[in-house]
Amino acid sequence: MARKNAFYAQSGGVTAVINASACAVIETAREHRDRIGKLYAGRDGIIGALTEDLIDTSKESARAVAALRHTPGGAFGSARYKLRKFEEHRAQYERLIEVFQAHDIGYFFYNGGGDSADTCLKVSRLSAQMGYPIVCVHVPKTMDNDLPVTDCSPGFGSVAKYCATSIREAGYDVASMARTSTRVFIMEVMGRHAGWTTAACGLAAESEGEAPHVLLFPEIAFDQTKFLAKVEQTVKQHGYCVIGVSEGLQDAAGRFVSETGLRDAFGHAQLGGVAPVLASLVKERLGYKYHWAVADYLQRAARHIASKTDVEQSYAVGKAAVELALQGRNAVMPAIVRKSDKPYRWSIGVAELKDVANVEKKMPRDYISADGFHITDRCRQYLLPLIQGEDFPPFRNGMPDYIRLKNVPVAKKLETAFAI
Predict the structure, then answer these.
(1) pLDDT per residue over 44-96, tens digit each?
(2) 261: exposed, middle or buried (Cβ count in 10 Å: 0-12, 13-18, 19+)
(3) If both were cysteines, with which of 4, 96, 197, 384 could 189 make a disulfide (CB 3.0 to 4.6 Å apart)?
(4) Contact at 8 Å (CB) between 198 and 166?
(5) CB-based burial of residue 371 (10 Å sphere; 0-12 exposed, 13-18 middle, 19+ buried)?
(6) Domains of the chain, with CATH numbers?
(7) Catalytic residue among 115, 144, 310, 391
(8) Annotation says 115 is catalytic
(9) Which of these, 305, 326, 333, 298, lies nearest to 392 by C-alpha position?
(10) Closest by alpha carbon to 344, among 309, 380, 392?
(11) Does the predicted TM-score (pTM) go above 0.90?
(12) Is the four-CA dihedral 204, 206, 210, 215 of positive or negative sign?
């Protein structure tokens, strides 16, 4: 392919390390100026492409780009916006191609989860049909760890490290006060259909009796009676009970325990708080004093305690994405391949997007204990390598020193606007 410009966008919920992938994409593209002209970023994800709201990353210094590696959030803005089926909204795809053509863009890097993989696949297929072929490479990211093919999803290791650390620290707190105060503490973590983040909480319990004592996964139907019996037994045995629960906890009928009835931009059920629901249940039925917390954005923004392994993998997939595009590999995703557990060794492989899009990787049953309330040794063996190592950001005046880019806009070339 002749020298073309490239387009990069971030999608969905951001992570503590998604900018490490952005850093890699930009730095690698700059190493290949003979093949890639300018790298544009979409302001607020794919919306930036649809509205021709592009950012010129060439205006950022090498030092600023390098600082992305230790900065959380989405440097260019992200969005929960899913392209509809081609038959339903042809205008969206025509607009993308129109913008790409106007700015001589021949490479499309989309950094996100399963829905982003689907979008990337659609664009790769339809761009050729519409007369303007674009090399599309998906850059994997999701804190839920539910992308298939890849050993783990960049972004997950850091969330896992934060959640395991937080629930361990909270466990020490509750144990100190249990005799005269709080007996039950519940921490709610993200995970709509897959319980990987909840499982990560289990890493904090290395010996019998250590917190967390109970884990509630989306993969295991919630049984109120068994749950209350487990909590009561734990309090009698240890004096207190610490619980990790997924936001996506479901009952036997498949209903979310915390569903509000609303839907997000991707059409997913908007979940409320399952922790307060369980806390009220514990209070009403068992009479224990409780506290609960929802990790929410804190877990995915905690760059200060990011996993070094996760940072390295996030950078590696960004770098590999550009290299794959330059090889002409279309509709693919760089994937992490596990070579061994001890020591943990991994490499970068290649996954076809047709095997990734709209496929959700859930927790294997043998990763969950027989009673459904904790993780197994096999799960621990899988998870532990992903939280290894510290990669602290620089600090200034006692606070993490993060970067905010200039995000200089690119002059528009199209006369017509596009309504989102």
Answers:
(1) 999 999 999 999 999 999 999 999 999 999 999 999 887 777 777 788 888 99
(2) exposed
(3) 197
(4) no
(5) exposed
(6) 4-154+304-359+390-400 (3.40.50.450), 157-302 (3.40.50.460)
(7) 144
(8) no
(9) 305
(10) 309
(11) yes
(12) positive
